[in-house]
């Protein structure tokens, strides 16, 4: 699943996932029926509105061995919220489909490390990089040090620690709008910590958080680029940048 | 002199004001980072912390499951030991019970300790209306009271104040209500504590009646438990002739043995100590020793409402350690007052709507006062899944507005997004027509977004459109 945000705003991330997975010998498909995991509705409290979205999700991906998504929060939503939505719908068929699909849904780093069993994906990225572990990857999903291990195996990379890395960037979906002042206060602190590292690139596993932090960095002309983990991992000497 | 939380604005409004106070942000950032560090250290020492958390949660769950029986047992054991038990459905009833006791004894002042629950019911104001002064004796509570202020943290109610501010409050206010602070008072913590001690000593020795809360109430033995760091609680509980303890019904623990995990989890999670300096327990009246008249007010005030909420009831496990506040990035920046209650931070964001019910703008705003980062759940010693309850309460807020004649713009946007997101083809069309990703953002108020943050430039082609055009071939 490429996620609705990536589909519309960051297609390069989707292409990077395809390139990376194919390089590792995975047969990748993009079922055109997929749309969104329903997280924006669930997290804002619109459970009824989430029901048709979840229904579409399980229909679109039925029959695949694995659903891989470059987003900790979407994978978290599938695993921890779809059951809730199915209960709301009081639909046993939907509940069955959800129970069937959830354990086969993986965030990218989980899929690479746990399913494919690789940490060195053969990437090359000669830049000074710092990594922000997004809250949903870190806590809701528990991806642990998988992204870090993947990054450490990248050739040419210089990985620097991000101070207060575990602290939320303040995006939080509709939180960024409903409580914009608090969200920006949190994001500004995060952006400051990023600048303190002297990194050229901030990497994370969720483009939504990167959109928020990146938006603040760019407004402050900090000269730090933000990139999705998939794009760094897709990048090779022959094909730098990892874009398509 | 006292303020109340009544009439507080919704969270985003209160938060905006708090964020503008740079001194407040500095005080809070410093204080929470210090407590966080201490807590991390002492929690890491416990090898089986996760098991201990599970044990603590299990004790509280068992207590809540059989709450009705445990409460009846608690009443019996307390009565057997000479205490008088009262039941209060709400704040008005509870306040009336305390006021009546004070009137019968013709006191014009009471000393107080562990008074969060009495803040919840507005007891000081109720006593004041009867001409009875209520003195807070916990150091931080004293600072809040003298400053004509409101508590902003569960454990450190004056966390928003720094030493210089406290010195100023002591110097200008103590004299008006009792023993004055020394005129050359410095802002050294020891000097401040000494001034408070001298001020309070006078009150302890004079007051004939005390009001307390309790951390736990053991049903089988009829024992109330208070843990504290300063020893002032012990003075309150033993010196006066009359003691009234106001206890929320969720404080009950069935057996003495079950206190064990809770008394181990609490100090490490709250003050970052291995053990709390003072643990006081009392059960009824002991002739010739301590208060000779003991009243216990068992308070509901919304707790049975919270208990009826299948997802939300876990919030009643809370042991008020404040660990969730100290790790919360939202609390760290806006402080406790923005939550409009004596229960601030993540637990306040769920507990207040659960106790009071959703439906007014202030309680409705609280479930949204979180980025759902999950740090609170990770820290909570009794494993309250605060993010889960937040999302659940958000759905209650939304459901409460489903019949609105004029739906909120957000509801309209969610409905149309729901339709669009229910099919890939619909989404594809929407992307082509409106560049939906950013379009959705615009509908939620991209103006607010771009006031402070840049938006990414929308790409020329969506992923979906690209895949369709090339059939997923990367070389095209
Ligand atoms: S919710 Fe948990 S962490 Fe927060 S105060 Fe209560 S017990 Fe402590």
Number of helices of chain A: 13
- Poorly predicted runs of chain B: none
Give the H and E element order of chain A. Answer: HHHHEHHEHEHHEHHEHEH
Query: What is the average per-residue confidence, as pLDDT of chain B, rounded to a whole number?
Result: 92
Question: How are the SSEs placed, and which strands pair?
Answer:
The complex is a heterodimer of chains A (244) and B (476).
Chain A lengths: L3 H5 L2 H13 L15 H6 L2 H15 L5 E3 L2 H18 L2 H10 L3 E3 H8 L12 E4 L3 H7 L4 H7 L5 E3 L14 H4 L1 H18 L3 E4 L2 H13 L5 E4 H6 L10
Parallel strand pairs in A: 1-2, 3-4, 3-5, 5-6
Helix pairs in contact in A: 4-5, 4-6, 5-6, 5-8, 11-12
Chain B lengths: L10 H9 L2 H23 L4 H17 L1 H14 L2 E6 L2 H14 L4 E5 L2 H6 L1 H7 L3 E4 L2 H8 L16 H15 L11 H18 L2 E4 L3 E3 L4 E6 L3 H7 L3 E7 L3 E2 L5 H12 L7 E5 L10 E7 L3 H5 L15 H5 L1 H6 L10 H12 L4 H5 L9 H5 L6 H15 L8 H13 L2 H11 L1 H8 L2 H5 L12 H8 L6
Parallel strand pairs in B: 1-10, 2-3, 2-4, 4-7, 5-8, 7-10
Antiparallel strand pairs in B: 5-6, 6-9
Helix pairs in contact in B: 3-12, 9-10, 16-19, 21-22
The complex binds iron/sulfur cluster.
Iron/sulfur cluster (SF4) binds next to helix 14 of chain B.
Describe this structure in words.
Chain A: Residues 2-78, 129-213 form the Cysteine-rich domain. Chain A: This is (Fe-S)-binding protein. Chain B: This is Lactate utilization protein B. The complex is a heterodimer of chains A (244) and B (476). Chain A is an alpha/beta fold and 244 residues long. Chain A has two domains: 4-115; 128-234, Rossmann fold, CATH 3.40.50. Chain A is built from 13 helices and six strands. Chain A has helices at residues 4-8, 11-23, 39-44, 47-61, 72-89, 92-101, 108-115, 135-141, 146-152, 175-178, 180-197, 207-219, 229-234, and strands at 67-69, 105-107, 128-131, 158-160, 201-204, 225-228. A four-stranded parallel sheet of chain A has the order 4-3-5-6, with helices on both faces. In chain A, strands 1-2 form a two-stranded parallel ribbon. Chain B has 476 residues and is of the alpha/beta class. Helices cover 52% and strands 10% of the residues of chain B. Chain B is built from 24 helices and ten strands. In chain B, strands 1-10-7-4-2-3 form a six-stranded parallel sheet, sandwiched between helices. In chain B, a hairpin with a 4-residue loop joins strand 5 (216-218) and strand 6 (223-228). The model of chain B has no long low-confidence stretch (mean pLDDT 92). Chains A and B meet through helix 1, helix 2, helix 3, helix 4 and helix 8 of A and helix 1, helix 15, helix 18, helix 19 and helix 20 of B. The site of iron/sulfur cluster has 15 residues of chain B, from helix 14. Residues 154, 269, 318-324, 347, 379-382, 384 of chain B line the site of iron/sulfur cluster.
């Amino acid at each position: 699943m490429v996620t609705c945000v990536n589909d519309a705003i960051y297609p390069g991330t989707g292409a990077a996932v395809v390139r990376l997975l194919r390089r590792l010998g995975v047969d990748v498909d993009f079922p055109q029926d997929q749309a969104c995991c329903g997280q924006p509705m669930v997290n804002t409290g619109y459970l009824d509105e989430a029901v048709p979205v979840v229904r579409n999700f399980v229909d679109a991906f039925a029959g695949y061995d694995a659903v891989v998504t470059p987003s900790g929060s979407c994978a978290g939503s599938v695993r921890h919220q779809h059951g809730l939505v199915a209960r709301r719908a009081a639909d046993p068929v939907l509940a069955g489909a959800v129970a069937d699909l959830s354990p086969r849904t993986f965030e990218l780093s989980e899929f690479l490390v746990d399913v494919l069993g690789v940490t060195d994906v053969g990437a090359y990225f000669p830049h000074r990089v710092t990594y922000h572990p997004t809250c949903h990857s870190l806590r809701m999903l528990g991806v642990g040090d998988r992204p870090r291990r993947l990054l450490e195996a990248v050739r040419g990379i210089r990985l620097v620690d991000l101070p207060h890395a575990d602290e939320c960037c303040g995006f939080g979906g509709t939180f960024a709008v409903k409580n914009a002042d608090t969200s920006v206060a949190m994001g500004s602190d995060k952006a400051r910590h990023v600048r303190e590292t002297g990194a050229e690139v901030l990497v994370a596993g969720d483009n939504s958080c990167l959109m928020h932090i990146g938006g603040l960095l760019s407004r402050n002309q900090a000269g730090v680029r933000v990139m999705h983990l998939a794009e760094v991992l897709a990048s090779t000497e022959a094909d730098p940048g990892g874009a398509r | 002199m006292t303020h109340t939380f009544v009439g507080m604005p919704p969270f985003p409004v209160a938060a905006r004001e708090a964020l503008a106070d740079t001194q407040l942000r500095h005080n809070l950032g410093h204080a929470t980072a210090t407590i966080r560090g201490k807590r991390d250290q002492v929690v890491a020492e416990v090898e089986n912390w996760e098991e201990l958390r599970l044990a603590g949660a299990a004790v509280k769950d068992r207590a809540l499951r059989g709450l009705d029986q445990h409460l009846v047992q608690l009443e019996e054991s307390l009565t057997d030991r000479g205490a008088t038990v009262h039941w209060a459905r709400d704040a008005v009833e509870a306040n009336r019970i305390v006021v009546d006791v004070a009137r019968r004894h013709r006191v014009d002042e009471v000393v107080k300790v562990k008074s969060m629950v009495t803040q919840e019911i507005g007891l000081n104001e109720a006593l004041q209306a009867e001409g009875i002064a209520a003195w807070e004796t916990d150091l931080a509570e004293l600072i809040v009271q003298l400053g004509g202020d409101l508590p902003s943290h569960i454990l450190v109610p004056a966390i928003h104040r720094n030493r210089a501010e406290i010195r100023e409050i002591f110097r200008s206010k103590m004299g008006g209500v009792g023993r004055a602070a020394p005129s050359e008072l410095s802002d050294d913590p020891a000097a401040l504590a000494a001034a408070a001690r001298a001020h309070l000593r006078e009150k302890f020795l004079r007051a004939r009646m005390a009001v307390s809360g309790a951390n736990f109430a053991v049903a089988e033995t009829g024992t109330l438990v208070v843990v504290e760091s300063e020893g002032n609680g012990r003075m309150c509980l033993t010196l006066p002739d009359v003691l009234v303890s106001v206890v929320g019904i969720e404080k009950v623990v069935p057996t003495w043995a079950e206190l064990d995990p809770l008394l181990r989890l609490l100090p490490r999670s709250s003050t970052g100590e291995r053990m709390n300096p003072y643990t006081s327990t009392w059960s009824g009246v002991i002739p010739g020793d301590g208060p000779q008249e003991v009243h216990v007010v068992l308070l509901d005030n919304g707790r049975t409402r919270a208990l009826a909420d299948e997802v939300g009831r876990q919030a009643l496990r809370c042991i008020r350690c404040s660990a969730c506040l100290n790790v919360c990035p939202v609390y760290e920046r806006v402080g406790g007052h923005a939550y409009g209650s004596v229960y601030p931070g993540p637990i306040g964001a769920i507990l207040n709507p659960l106790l009071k019910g959703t439906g007014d703008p202030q309680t409705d705003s609280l479930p949204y006062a979180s980025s759902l980062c999950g740090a609170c759940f990770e820290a909570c010693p009794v494993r309250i899944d605060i993010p889960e309850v937040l999302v659940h309460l958000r759905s209650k807020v939304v459901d409460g507005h489903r019949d609105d004649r004029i739906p909120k713009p957000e509801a309209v946007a969610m409905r149309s997004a729901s339709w669009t997101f229910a099919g890939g083809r619909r989404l594809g069309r929407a992307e082509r027509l409106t560049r939906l990703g950013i379009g959705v953002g615009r509908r939620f108020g991209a103006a607010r977004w771009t006031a402070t943050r840049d938006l990414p430039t929308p790409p020329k082609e969506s992923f979906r459109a690209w895949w369709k055009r090339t059939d997923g071939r990367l070389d095209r």
